[in-house]
Amino acid sequence: MASPATCRLRCKARLGKEAPVNSKSATKAALSVQIRWMIRRDMAEVLQIERSSFEYHWTEADFLHCLRQRNCIGMVAEYGNRVVGFMIYELFKNRLHILNFAVAPDYRHCGIGNQMVAKLANKLSQQRREFITLDVRETNLQAQIFFRGQGFQATRVLRDHYQDTSEDAYVMQFALHGNENQQRFEASNRIADYEEA
Ligand SMILES: CC(C)(COP(=O)(O)OP(=O)(O)OC[C@H]1O[C@@H](n2cnc3c(N)ncnc32)[C@H](O)[C@@H]1OP(=O)(O)O)[C@@H](O)C(=O)NCCC(=O)NCCS
Questions:
Q1: Per-residue pLDDT in tens (0 to 9) along the chain, 197 residues
Q2: Closest ligand 1 atom, CA of 108?
Q3: Fewer beta carbons within 10 Å, N or C terminal of the chain?
Q4: Domains and CATH numbers, the chain
């Protein structure tokens, strides 16, 4: 198993400087992980990733409360014997909604997030669930860039969505049949609104 430090180097070495930034096959080859359902025993490692990824993080009680819901599912990415990423998502009639998702800081940019989103997209079906949605904080630019690279588009703004910072959320959506029919959302933030007023 590569150490976290070599992982980053290895990914960069494999991709090379000329590789396209969003080359999915290239990132996929970078560090192949096993993706499986989350179990109770994963909680300690999941909490560690959660705390190192978010300023306003979920507690263990938040995870347990969420995972007790019938329509809520947890998955983890494992590398060797280590949990290096997790995703919590909800099942709705015609879509899957990502509630929480992070990759351990030392394992980022190794294609793991990409593999987890691909796994989720494989669960969509022609007849039933066609969309993946999520809310992302307006300040979380890295996640917005990541999801855009995965084929998501911003479709809506939820004003003052978060209780902790009263930030806006952007709703981002992936559509199995493409986003062509979606109304295109023009990004605007509070500062833009302020300048227009
Ligand atoms: C968003 C996140 C899950 C991405 O996971 P990851 O395993 O690093 O993603 P990948 O390695 O599959 O990235 C694929 C591509 O997405 C883009 N990308 C990923 N992270 C990025 C960043 N910080 N800045 C810019 N682009 C980024 C890049 O194009 C990247 O390809 P590259 O590494 O060849 O440049 C991870 O950064 C993370 O855990 N962030 C903190 C938690 C978070 O914000 N979660 C989302 C909440 S909505």
A1: 444 444 444 443 233 333 333 444 444 457 999 999 999 999 999 999 999 999 999 999 999 999 999 999 999 999 999 999 999 999 999 999 999 999 999 999 999 999 999 999 999 986 689 999 999 999 999 999 999 999 999 999 999 899 888 899 999 999 998 866 565 555 555 555 555 54
A2: 8
A3: C
A4: 33-101 (3.40.630.30), 130-197 (3.40.630.30)
Check if 110 has its Cβ closer than 6 Å to any atom of ligand 1.
yes
Name the residue at shortest CA distance from atom 35 of ligand 1.
21
Ligand 1: centre distance to CA 195 (Å): 31
